[in-house]
């Protein structure tokens, strides 16, 4: 019964091009915390392969989230993210990201955005050709002008069609390839993309890169190199005296069963300290560890922030370890057959994690410690990973996988 009503509501929503569910911007903002790791705090992502969501049409966002959930748009990273979302969550999130446009444009956040990676394409990109194709299409090759559906300068006024302006070119190129090879399906786009040559795709990418044509892209790709910490580094240093025995004087642990904390993200460290404390109040919550429970007991929230700032400001001396090919393959590609998401999706290409949210840096960490954590996630004795992100993966790892991954990750630089 519920299902019938549901599809009716969706049908209606499509007809009117309006959201069947009213989205609540504030609720969406709260729910978006888990998305920030990849899509950025304001929906402006720092990683080329993760799309910006700020200012995107809410209707389009809802449609994509539904597609990720029902599998009609398949992506190993977004599938588990969307699986847990209700219709209301989707509408709230969409409302928030649509409204995030202004905030993003005037943002002075201290989030660290990475510089756009300029990889030299094998073909020489021609932005002018990309622009011509975008605006006029190519009748001879049956390519409809993109502007017809995506609007002038990539700002579409059809709510179910995505804005392309200010989107990462690398992401857009990947989508064009996916529409072309059919791995992402949409009738209009599959038709359009099937006629695009490799040169067209690169030219279009170059056009999207062209700031004068698609708005000020530079605005969202500014490099903030200054490391800022929300906690007080000096106060944290003073507090760290009690931690030295296990985590080392500067956060570099000498004993391999203890984690190094140096250079770890502040967000992640604060979360762990809070989680250790939460577990002492309710054993079903947080991260239970008998040793750390005692350590965090006397810490106030400010102490935690200051300690996190101190360790984040230190430099990691990577563990001595030799690389591992099996581990490397799992890390970079995962294993689709066994449903293992590639670690790179969340811990990034260099293992440095995604700082502004809580995806930890793991590169150069002690292998013994990494192994112990993967085993804990596998057994769910560590269960403080939002949405079971790590447990879902670890449960599919064999003992051999865990050893291989621990070696590889520990040897990453
Ligand atoms: C671990 C990283 C990660 C997290 C966390 C994440 N996403 Fe994504 N998201 C991605 C990737 C990667 C893609 C692009 C998939 C593709 O290439 O098709 C994507 C695509 C999307 C898209 C499609 C955008 C477009 O232009 O088509 C939407 C909408 C989206 N994500 C929403 C969300 C929301 C809402 C959340 C939080 C509930 C979230 N994502 C959390 C990685 C992530
Ligand atoms: C007939 C209308 C139409 C035309 C013409 C068209 N598109 Fe699209 N495009 C769409 C729709 C609809 C979607 C959303 C598909 C979905 O819901 O998954 C889309 C999605 C996209 C996306 C993915 C955006 C994202 O955020 O994931 C890209 C990139 C794109 N189009 C580029 C182009 C380019 C380049 C052209 C011209 C060569 C073009 N489109 C022509 C309708 C069109
Ligand atoms: C007696 C040894 C010991 C002392 C002293 C100690 N820790 Fe730990 N710490 C550990 C162990 C063991 C773990 C790993 C727990 C697990 O396996 O989940 C850990 C884990 C952590 C983590 C999580 C690291 C990660 O990568 O997830 C943080 C953060 C942390 N400790 C901070 C501190 C701080 C801050 C202090 C001082 C106030 C401190 N620790 C004192 C033993 C210690
Ligand atoms: C969908 C995102 C995602 C993927 C994919 C992922 N991780 Fe994680 N990982 C996380 C998050 C989030 C945490 C931190 C959980 C928390 O808040 O305590 C984490 C924590 C960890 C930790 C513990 C770090 C520490 O300092 O305690 C290790 C080790 C780890 N991941 C290894 C891996 C490996 C190896 C893979 C690939 C097999 C992988 N992860 C894939 C999201 C992911």
Automatic annotation (TrEMBL):
<keyword id="KW-0732">Signal</keyword>
<keyword id="KW-0408">Iron</keyword>
<keyword id="KW-0349">Heme</keyword>
<dbReference type="InterPro" id="IPR036909">
    <property type="entry name" value="Cyt_c-like_dom_sf"/>
</dbReference>
<keyword id="KW-0813">Transport</keyword>
<feature type="domain" description="Cytochrome c">
    <location>
        <begin position="125"/>
        <end position="212"/>
    </location>
</feature>
<feature type="domain" description="Cytochrome c">
    <location>
        <begin position="23"/>
        <end position="101"/>
    </location>
</feature>
<protein>
    <recommendedName>
        <fullName>Cytochrome c domain-containing protein</fullName>
    </recommendedName>
</protein>
<feature type="domain" description="Cytochrome c">
    <location>
        <begin position="231"/>
        <end position="315"/>
    </location>
</feature>
<feature type="domain" description="Cytochrome c">
    <location>
        <begin position="322"/>
        <end position="413"/>
    </location>
</feature>
<keyword id="KW-0479">Metal-binding</keyword>
<dbReference type="InterPro" id="IPR009056">
    <property type="entry name" value="Cyt_c-like_dom"/>
</dbReference>
<dbReference type="InterPro" id="IPR050597">
    <property type="entry name" value="Cytochrome_c_Oxidase_Subunit"/>
</dbReference>
<keyword id="KW-0249">Electron transport</keyword>
<feature type="signal peptide">
    <location>
        <begin position="1"/>
        <end position="20"/>
    </location>
</feature>
<dbReference type="Pfam" id="PF00034">
    <property type="entry name" value="Cytochrom_C"/>
</dbReference>
């Amino acid at each position: 019964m519920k299902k019938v009503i549901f599809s009716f509501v969706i049908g209606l929503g499509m007809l009117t091009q309006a959201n069947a569910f009213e989205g609540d911007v504030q609720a969406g903002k709260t729910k978006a915390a888990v998305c920030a790791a990849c899509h950025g705090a304001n929906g402006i992502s720092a990683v080329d392969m993760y799309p910006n969501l700020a200012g995107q049409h809410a209707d389009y966002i809802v449609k994509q989230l539904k597609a990720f959930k029902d599998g009609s748009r398949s992506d190993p990273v977004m599938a588990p993210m969307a699986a847990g979302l209700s219709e209301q969550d989707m509408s709230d999130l969409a409302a928030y990201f649509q409204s995030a446009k202004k905030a993003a444009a005037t943002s002075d956040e201290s989030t660290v955005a990475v510089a756009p990676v300029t990889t030299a394409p094998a073909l020489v990109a021609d932005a002018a050709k990309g622009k011509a194709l975008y605006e006029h299409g190519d009748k001879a090759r049956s390519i409809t002008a993109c502007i017809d559906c995506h609007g002038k300068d990539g700002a579409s006024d059809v709510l179910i069609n995505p804005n392309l302006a200010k989107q990462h070119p690398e992401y857009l190129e990947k989508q064009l390839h996916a529409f072309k090879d059919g791995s992402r399906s949409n009738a209009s786009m599959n038709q359009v993309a099937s006629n695009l040559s490799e040169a067209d795709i690169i030219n279009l990418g170059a056009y999207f890169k062209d700031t004068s044509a698609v708005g000020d892209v530079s605005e969202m790709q500014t490099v903030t190199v200054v490391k800022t910490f929300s906690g007080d580094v000096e106060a944290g240093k003073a507090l760290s005296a009690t931690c030295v025995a296990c985590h080392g004087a500067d956060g570099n642990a000498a004993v391999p069963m203890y984690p190094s904390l140096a250079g770890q993200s502040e967000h992640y460290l604060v979360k762990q300290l809070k989680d250790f404390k939460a577990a002492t109040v309710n054993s079903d919550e947080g991260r239970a560890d008998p040793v750390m429970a005692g350590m965090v007991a006397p810490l106030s929230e400010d102490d935690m922030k200051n300690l996190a700032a101190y360790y984040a400001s230190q430099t990691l001396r990577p563990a001595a370890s030799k690389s591992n090919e099996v581990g490397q393959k799992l890390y970079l590609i995962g294993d689709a057959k066994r449903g293992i998401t590639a670690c790179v999706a969340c811990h990034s290409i260099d293992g440095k994690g995604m700082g502004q949210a809580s995806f930890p840096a793991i590169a150069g960490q002690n292998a013994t410690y990494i192994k112990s954590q993967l085993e804990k996630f596998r057994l769910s004795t560590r269960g403080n990973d939002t949405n079971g992100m790590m447990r879902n993966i670890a449960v599919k790892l064999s003992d051999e996988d865990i050893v291989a991954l621990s070696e590889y990750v520990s040897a990453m630089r």
